[in-house]
Amino acid sequence: MTLVPNIRSRGRPILSRRIQNRHFCALIKAATSVRRRPHALGPIGSSANCYISACEWEARSRAMASVPKLLLLLFFCSCHSLIAHAGDDRSYTVLSLDSLKSDAVCSERKAVPLPGAATVPLHHRHGPCSPLNITKMPTLKEMLRRDQLRAAYIQRKLSAGAKGGAGDVQQSDATVPTKLGTYLDTLEYLITVVIGSPGVTQTMLIDTGSDVSWVQCKPCSQCHSQADPLFDPSSSSTYSPFSCSSATCAQLGQEGNGCSNSQCQYIVRYGDGSSTTGTYSSDTLALGSNTVTNFQFGCSQVGSGFDDQTAGLMGLGGGTQSLVSQTAGTFGTAFSYCLPATSSSSGFLTLGAGTGSSGFVRTPMLRSSQVLTFYGVRLQAIRVGGRQLNIPSSAFSAGEIMDSGTVITRLQRTAYSALSSAFKAGMKQYPRAPSSGILDTCFDFSGQRSITIPTVALVFSGGAVVNLDANGIILGSCLAFAGNSDDSSFGIIGNVQQRTFEVLYDVGGGSVGFRAGAC
């Protein structure tokens, strides 16, 4: 399967910004007679980017004294408009090990609602901000085991699409879980919504890798325990099941499951063998102060393989059934979220995110015609300690999937090998430690209260540079990246690397944006 740029992309800002940067770089180069050479954050006047480190900017300030101040300001702003900073331009950053731990008290941050948009708080399911009141956190080993199942599921789904299918994962392709709840337990972030009239509060996991949303409903012959009351469709005056002959039922495709009492039935199977089935329906959905009428969702009456306190799942994928597609007429085809740095702080989910908002660096969005669910991007390079690694462009040719549900970023083998080697070289002051599951670049931080780590930046197509937050580099005592078995498989940008960034999915505009320090 091939990921291609979204044909609806307006794409112009990225190209024009690069051209503009070349003009500014040429002017500065001529005015200061600075010889073009490689440096920490890329070559001045290069065709791809125009970046300059803060220290080099200061060093050249005297040489630029003859250049008008306005031109210098425009140059500085132009160069940095393609960089999302979670820190500054230093090669190393100091990280307090306490900052990697969650506090026992919730640190709630209210997101500022945008005009014409719907914004709801977003929380980590295991933190003190979570309405689920889950006291026991999974071990790192268990979390990584679940995460590997999630990544394998995405790869299978994409591979099925590449072979000409619709990307569905059949029961025969799945591994039956040895423990209940494997799929939902890989998802970490949740929102609280209200469904029905009168409304019933439902706590739902969010997932950019799913299209069909669902909640558990009465009567339920096989339901997992949940913190909220079960939704009772018979008590809602606005509830309506879809008929088997409806166009909405036909659009379910692989998720369609025939008829029962002339009502449309759905089924969603996940990669670990878990599944949900019931009646495909519509009802009123409240997102904060915003109301969505005729919200389509699965009313789950039989669930298999779940052991989770949430009411269900909210699909944010790119397919027809997702919340994003359903609300496009009201909020447009853009949404964003910010995942907090730790589980003791909060983030947000916004439908109708401002596509023209400032502060974002953007890269073209890639989509597959076979599997519309996933949102793709393409890495061009990786920087460690301010230096760009020598990775051939062919290593990134398969593309990467942006995913809210995968924890650890998966890179193609060649790219990960280069990243791991460079990071280990920058961490020589710390003893190596044994691998932890899929994480094989680990260190012994015994006796340390803070550590000094190399900065890591991801460079995406179009020249968008994302300088990762320190919490997006280290997980436990290991580099928070893993490698694929080869270069031909898709990479996955996981949620650890997305922390503290507002990640914008501008589906209509055909781009993915990053804004640092948003939560």
TrEMBL record:
Alphabetic keyword roster: Aspartyl protease, Disulfide bond, Hydrolase, Protease, Signal
Active site (catalytic residues): 207, 403
A GO molecular function held by the record: aspartic-type endopeptidase activity
Biological process annotations from GO: proteolysis
Peptidase A1 domain: residues covered: 189-515
InterPro entries: Aspartic_peptidase_A1, Aspartic_peptidase_AS, CND41-like, PEPTIDASE_A1, Peptidase_aspartic_dom_sf, TAXi_C, TAXi_N
Domain of life: Eukaryota
Pfam families the UniProt entry points to: TAXi_C (PF14541), TAXi_N (PF14543)
Record has Zinc as a keyword: no
Similarity comment text for this entry: Belongs to the peptidase A1 family.
Protein name: Peptidase A1 domain-containing protein
UniProt organism field: Setaria italica (Foxtail millet)
Lineage: Eukaryota, Viridiplantae, Streptophyta, Embryophyta, Tracheophyta
